[in-house]
C-alpha cells in the first residue's frame, strides 16, 4: 500500500498522483513556473532594450551620412517597439492565474504570441548587428 503524503515536498497545496511513489516529488505548480519563466524573459527583454538604446544612440551619433543609417534606425525602432509589446504581454501573463481554466486559452495565446514576437526581435537584432553599429571616429 502506498502512502501519498510521505513523499510530498513544498507547501502541501500540490497534490500527488495516486500511483506516485512515496519518494517522488510533488507535482509542478504551473502558475509559479510560468511566473518565474515570464520574469526571466522580462529581465532578458530589459537587457536587450538597453542594448538597443545604446545602438540607437550610436546610430544617431553617426548621423544620416553614414551607410545603412535609415535601415538600421528603422530596425532598431521596430525592435524597441516589439520589446515594449512583449514586456506588456508578460505583465498580463504574470498577473493572470494559470490555475483558472477559463483563462487557459487566452494565456496560451499570449504565451505563443510573446514567444513569436521574441523570435522576431531576435531576427531583427541579427540584421541590426549585420548592418553594424559603430561609434563614429572623432578626432577632436
Annotation keywords:
140 residues; mainly alpha; 3 helices; disordered N terminus
In short:
This protein has about 140 residues and is mainly alpha-helical.
The topology string of helices and strands comes to HHH
- Sheet with the most strands? none
Low-confidence stretches: 1-17
- Terminal CA distance: 83 Å
Mean pLDDT: 76
Q: Which outline best applies?
A: elongated
Proportion of residues in β-strands: under 5%
By DSSP, the count of extended strands is 0
Structural class: mainly alpha
Topology:
Elements: H1 30-62, H2 69-95, H3 104-131
Helix pairs in contact: 1-2, 2-3
What does this structure look like?
With 140 residues, this protein is mainly alpha-helical. It has one domain. Helix content is 63%, strand content 0%. It contains three helices and no strands. Helix 2 packs antiparallel against helix 3. It is elongated, with a radius of gyration of 23 Å.
Amino acid at each position: 500500500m502506498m502512502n501519498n503524503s510521505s513523499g510530498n515536498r513544498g507547501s502541501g497545496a500540490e497534490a500527488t498522483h495516486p500511483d506516485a511513489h512515496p519518494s517522488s516529488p510533488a507535482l509542478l505548480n504551473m502558475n509559479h513556473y510560468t511566473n518565474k519563466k515570464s520574469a526571466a524573459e522580462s529581465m532578458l527583454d530589459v537587457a536587450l532594450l538597453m542594448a538597443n538604446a545604446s545602438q540607437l544612440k550610436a546610430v544617431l551619433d553617426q548621423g544620416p551620412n553614414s551607410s545603412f543609417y535609415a535601415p538600421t534606425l528603422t530596425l532598431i525602432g521596430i525592435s524597441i517597439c516589439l520589446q515594449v509589446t512583449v514586456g506588456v504581454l508578460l505583465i498580463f501573463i504574470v498577473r493572470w492565474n494559470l490555475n483558472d481554466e477559463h483563462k487557459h486559452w487566452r494565456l496560451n495565446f499570449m504565451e505563443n504570441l510573446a514567444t513569436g514576437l521574441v523570435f522576431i526581435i531576435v531576427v531583427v537584432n541579427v540584421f541590426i548587428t549585420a548592418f553594424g553599429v559603430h561609434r563614429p571616429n572623432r578626432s577632436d
